[in-house]
């Protein structure tokens, strides 16, 4: 009896390690990184020592970023090439519509919570701010988004994206030669006063001009659109497109094998990645006093949207248990928490969907890359909360029309936010300028942004994965299961029954 019990316990432990061992190690790595980071803060390490200490975490980010480009291109080309045009169009329309809808809902949730909690009324605008000056307009930002959708150089798009820069041009005013002021200054020799001419040099006129520039970030949106177009055209080419499709499928399989091997390094890298970020942050007690209510408002919005509304949408549209589905995504969410990048988490999210959630490979290959590019629910919610928070700090009353403007602008700006750490700060300028708020006040929330960025990245990744499950359910008739796989499953079930009856 004892031997049977020990065998069953051993089998249970083996099954748990096989299914949840990596997830457990990743969670323990996050906790260990937090403890290690706060412990080492007392040592007051130098900047160079912090760089050396964070090196294993830097390697983790480099591994993940290395896999983004081959994964996106091979997934979209091989996935869309095997789809029919009608099925592909239907899936594309459903995906984009769902993403826009959830992003707008996230913005509305953030606006409602920040108006109820009012975190900015007890906060004073202290500390240093950026120098004043012209900021990029919403029109320029929208045009940059369209330009990045159609990159002029595909090779350049792998490491750069287009950006409009604002350049100040100073013009020296013309000196008229006439005095600005005339004073009568009495002295001992001239008791009635003598004439003193005072000439003031007026400040220079500053004009702002735009010029094309680039930022050192991968143009994921342009690569996604190019790869999707190539995949659709390869499917229509028939036999002539088969060789390139086979190449893309081989690349995709190789990338997934690299991911399966690299995931065992992730817990070790996560420890130093999290600890390094904690070493770099400001005093936590000071942050809590200044931005505590603001951080709680953002976290409450992410909780409501990510753990209540998104699972509710999944349940309504699929009639399946969303939390069973989310359980298979925990590994990807832990990586998102550690890396703060939805694009860098894309390989792990793809692995979780295919292996744990059993999402159709064709759907996952399309929905995930598109979602990592345009679906930023957490970022949109954060931008809406931050904009109204800054308005409250400055005692600036927003009317209903301005709230609508913030909701629309935050939704549009989040689509253009790159899937990289703290990209929301860049698009935050667009939201602030749309309602006339000072862009310099972004510095009020920079100190706590790196913490909130990790949690909103988790919501972005969760939204992408739930969307893949929803689209897979709605389009299940367009993508029937593989007949070969069905035959294998039938054969396996027969063998199990034969073994059960000792045949």
Automatic annotation (TrEMBL):
Top-level taxonomic group: Eukaryota
Membrane topology term: Multi-pass membrane protein
A Pfam family per the record: SDF
Record field: transmembrane: 20-38, 59-78, 98-117, 218-238, 258-279, 291-317, 366-391, 403-421, 428-452
Compartments, record wording: Membrane
Signal peptide limits: none
Alphabetic keyword roster: Glycoprotein, Membrane, Symport, Transmembrane, Transmembrane helix, Transport
GO cellular component: plasma membrane
GO molecular function (one): glutamate:sodium symporter activity
Coiled coil: none
Homology family: Belongs to the dicarboxylate/amino acid:cation symporter (DAACS) (TC 2.A.23) family.
Name of the protein in question: Amino acid transporter
The organism of origin for this protein: Cyprinus carpio
